[in-house]
Specification:
One of its GO terms (biological process) is xenobiotic metabolic process. By secondary structure, this protein is of the alpha+beta class. It has a single domain, classed as Cytochrome P450 (Cytochrome p450). The chain is built from 15 helices and eleven strands. It starts with a helix and ends with a strand.
C-alpha cells in the first residue's frame, strides 16, 4: 500500500512539474511575441505581473516605463535578482550577480581600473586595431568560401578583453583561449534553456538536470583556469609596472593584507568572479552583435553597399580609427540599428527592488523580482518608426546626419548599466568598419538573401541561428 502511494505521488509530482515546464515556456514565448509582434487580442499596461512557478515577477514594458524605473527610480530598482542559478555560479561575488557593498566596491574598482588601462581611450584603440588585423587574416584564409563566424568573432573579442584583464592577448590557436571561449558559449546558451529556468523556479530539481550539471562543470574548469592565470601573474607581479586589471587587484589585495585590513572585499573569490564576469560579458555581447551585423549585411546587400561606399569615400584604403566615426554617419547608423534590431538581451538581467516602492500607481514590495524588457524599449512603436524592420534611417535625419535616440538602450540604464559600454562601442565600430572595408559578405552559393534566417537562437542572450557566410575580398 505504501509503495503504491509513493509511486502515485511521484507520478503526480512529475505531471505537476511537466505542466509548470510548459507554463514557463508559454510565458516566455508570450513575452517574446508580445514585444516582437504586439498583443493580438489583449492589451496589457506597461506594468504587469507574471508568475514563474511560485515566483512573482513584475514586468516593465515600453521606453517611458523602463526609463522611469531604471533612471528616475534608479536606487529603488537597482538591486540584482539573485536566482538560484546565479547564486550557485558566484555566491554573491564579482559584479554582475552581486548586491550591497561588495557589488559597489567591485564595480567602482573595475570601472576605475578599466579606464586606467585604456577603456574608451587611444591606448585600447591600438589593441583593438591590432586585433582587427589578426581577424582579417583569419577571414582571408577562407578565400571567399562559406564559413561559420562564431568562433572567430568570439576569439577576437576575447583577446581584447584579455589584453585588458591579463595584460596580454591570446593567439586564436591557443588551446587555453579556445577552451575558455567554448565553455563560455556553452554556459551562456545553457543558461537560457527551459530546464535551467525550471531549476530557478524549483531548485530541488537541480540534481536531476543535465544542463545545470554542465554549467557547474564549466564553472569549475573556469575557476581552475582563471586561478592558474592569476597565480602566474602573481609570481611576476611588479607594483611599479602593472600589466592589466588582475595586477591592480593583486596589488590592492597586498595592500589590504599589509595594512591588516580585516574582512577586506579584495580577496581571491571576488577577483576570480570579477575576472570571469568581465571575460564572459566582454566576449558574448560584442561578438554576438558583430555576428548579427555581418548576417544583416549579407541579408540586405543594398545597405552593405551604402556602408562600403561611405567607407571608401571617407577612409579609402587606410586603417579605420575611432575618430572616423563622426565622418561615417551611415555606417554608425547601421551599427546602432544592428544593436537595436538584434536586441541580444531582450529581458535584460533581472533586477530586484531594494525597498518598498510606489510606481505608476502600483505598490511593489521590497525584494520583488523585476524584468525591464529591453526589447520593448528597442522595439517601442511610440519611439521607432518601423520597429520590427532593420532600418538604419532610425538614426539619421533628413540630411543624412547621425542622430541619437533616447530609446536606444542596448546596454540597459541606471545603476546596472553595462560597465564595458565604451569598450563595446569602440570594438563594434572598429571591427565592423574594418571588416566591411576589406570584405563583401554574401550568403553561401545556392542560398539567396531571402533564405537567410533572422530568427534568433534563444539562450541567455539572443544569438543568430547557426549559419555560414562568404567573405569576398574587395581589394
Amino acid at each position: 500500500q505504501i509503495n503504491y502511494i509513493c509511486f502515485y505521488q511521484v507520478i503526480y509530482l512529475f505531471i505537476y512539474l511537466f505542466s509548470c515546464y510548459f507554463i514557463y515556456l508559454s510565458i516566455y514565448l508570450f513575452i517574446f511575441n508580445f514585444c516582437r509582434f504586439g498583443p493580438p487580442y489583449i492589451t496589457f499596461g506597461p506594468v504587469f505581473t507574471v508568475y514563474f512557478g511560485p515566483k512573482k515577477v513584475v514586468v516593465l514594458a515600453g521606453y517611458k516605463t523602463v526609463k522611469q524605473a531604471l533612471i528616475n527610480h534608479a536606487d529603488e530598482f537597482g538591486d540584482r535578482e539573485i536566482t538560484p542559478l546565479f547564486h550557485d555560479l558566484t555566491k554573491g561575488h564579482g559584479i554582475i550577480f552581486a548586491n550591497g557593498e561588495s557589488w559597489r566596491e567591485m564595480r567602482r574598482f573595475a570601472l576605475t581600473n578599466l579606464r586606467d588601462f585604456g577603456m574608451g581611450k587611444k591606448k585600447i584603440e591600438e589593441k583593438i586595431i591590432e586585433e582587427t588585423c589578426h581577424l582579417l587574416e583569419e577571414f582571408e584564409k577562407f578565400e571567399g568560401k562559406p564559413f561559420e563566424t562564431t568562433r572567430l568573432m568570439n576569439y577576437a573579442a576575447s583577446s581584447v578583453i584579455s589584453s585588458i584583464v591579463y595584460g596580454r592577448r591570446f593567439e586564436y590557436t591557443d588551446p587555453q583561449l579556445r577552451s575558455m571561449v567554448d565553455r563560455a558559449n556553452e554556459s551562456v546558451r545553457l543558461s537560457g534553456t527551459a530546464s535551467v529556468q525550471l531549476y530557478n523556479m524549483f531548485p530541488f530539481l537541480g540534481p536531476w538536470l543535465k544542463n545545470l550539471k554542465l554549467i557547474m562543470n564549466n564553472l569549475a574548469l573556469d575557476i581552475k583556469e582563471i586561478s592558474e592565470l592569476v597565480s602566474s601573474l602573481h609570481q611576476t607581479l611588479n607594483s611599479q609596472d602593472l600589466r592589466g586589471f588582475v595586477d591592480s587587484f593583486l596589488v590592492r589585495m597586498q595592500n589590504a593584507e599589509e595594512s591588516g585590513e580585516k574582512n577586506s572585499l579584495f580577496q581571491k573569490q571576488n577577483l576570480i568572479f570579477t575576472v570571469a564576469n568581465l571575460f564572459v560579458a566582454g566576449t558574448d555581447t560584442t561578438s554576438t552583435t558583430l555576428r548579427w551585423g555581418l548576417l544583416l549585411m549579407a541579408k540586405y546587400p543594398h545597405i552593405q553597399g551604402q556602408v562600403q561606399e561611405e567607407i571608401d569615400q571617407v577612409i579609402g584604403g587606410r586603417q579605420p580609427v575611432s575618430e572616423d566615426r563622426k565622418n561615417l554617419p551611415y555606417t554608425d547608423a547601421v551599427i546602432h540599428e544592428t544593436q537595436r534590431f538584434a536586441n541580444i538581451a531582450p529581458i535584460s538581467i533581472p533586477h530586484m527592488t531594494s525597498c518598498d516602492v510606489h510606481f505608476n500607481g502600483y505598490f511593489i514590495k521590497k525584494g520583488t523580482c523585476v524584468f525591464p524588457l529591453l526589447m520593448s524599449v528597442l522595439w517601442d512603436e511610440d519611439e521607432w518608426e518601423t520597429p520590427q524592420n532593420f532600418n538604419p534611417q532610425h538614426f539619421l535625419d533628413k540630411q543624412g546626419r547621425f542622430v541619437k535616440r533616447d530609446a536606444f538602450m542596448p546596454f540597459s540604464a541606471g545603476r546596472r548599466v553595462c560597465p564595458g559600454e565604451s569598450l563595446a562601442r569602440m570594438e563594434l565600430f572598429l571591427f565592423f568598419t574594418s571588416l566591411l572595408q576589406r570584405f563583401r559578405f554574401t550568403p553561401p552559393p545556392g542560398v539567396s538573401e531571402d533564405e537567410l534566417d533572422l530568427t534568433p537562437a534563444v539562450g541567455f542572450t539572443l544569438n543568430p541561428t547557426q549559419h555560414k557566410l562568404c567573405a569576398v575580398n574587395r581589394l
